[in-house]
Please model this.
Amino acid sequence: MRIASNLKKILFFLAALFVILFSLSAPYSTHNIDKLAYVIAMGLDVGQSNKLKLTIQLSKPESGSGGSSGSSYTNIVDTVECSSIDSGISLFNSYISRRINLSHCKVIVISTDLASQGVSDYIFTLLNNVEMSPHASIIVSKTTAEEFINNSKPELEDLASRYYEVSLSSNKYTGYTPNVSLVKFFSDSIDSFTNPVATLGSIGDMPIKSNDNAENMGLAIFKNDKLVGELTAQETIWHMIVSNHLKSCTLSIPNPLGDTESIDVNLKLDGSPKKTVNFINGTPHISCKIKVKIQILSATQESTSSNYNYYENENIKMIEKTCSDYLQKTISDYLYKTSKEYNSDIDSFGKYAVKYFATIKDWEEYNWLDNYYNSIFNVEVSTTLKSGYSFL
Model:
């Protein structure tokens, strides 16, 4: 009995040793990090020979780097014509030595040509992919998505993924563009209260000499899932103010003192905008009351030539009134543009209108997103001028 027991122990030990040795000598799984190709950016264009032209930007460790966290990276951009995103990824997998993985994808770039046809199928496909982060950013490019990605060159960052993160976070201090996530875009595209927007991208379209680099400035406006228009960088600031997403921005406002043409100010919201919706004979009357704080940065001429003290009480009141009047007009113009030209409620006023409807059926029958075109707006802005030492 003792011999049989010892024999069982020996056989069990040999079996365990065999399993360990086999696991160490077996080839790596396709899910091993050394067998994966990580997508940093994805581009969607209208195809020529097929429905879709799919572009991917991959990040590859330099030879000899060992894949360490401090290593530098080069970027590879590949394109394929395909019938869908999934079929395109399968085609990439067929000739790339590593399996495509989307877990590190930072941005999805969509050309205006494709966006104007509707993007719901592509957005749903990406959200349905377990690897894709729902927080990946959406960019609508005025050039082809392939060209945009090819010109996305990180000049101050070693990693392309870091470059996309930093470039899209500029909205915190410029207000020139929002950073819209994949899940946010999808939610707004199927909502009955609002319409989606996306970052507007271009190449060499800003008043900056940038060697034709990709740039993010402005706003792409959608009606449900179709692109219907664009906003300039300044118009995007008005959207950020009304939607309560503005952190801070620099503006040039008219100078009421007359010693210079304009005054550069830093602007921040002074609390959340107060938005209300009322119906008069079925027509939406939308009120938006906004409070802002400003700090004078500079004027367009040398300050030494000015005979005015900008912080005298009388001058403060003049500057505050001028700023309020300027913002009231420009924001009102922006709101009428989104309603009359694009019929797209990108500021979610529908959330303030739905309370007047007893049932969801009544709300759906009214069809807010189509009736937004008939809206009448009343914008009120109050400005507080702060000195450079007390601007919070």
User: Anything to note?
Assistant: Residues 16-30, 63-73, 301-305 have pLDDT under 50 and may be disordered. The radius of gyration is 28 Å. The chain has two domains: 22-231, 233-392. Residues 110 and 140 are 5 Å apart (CA to CA).
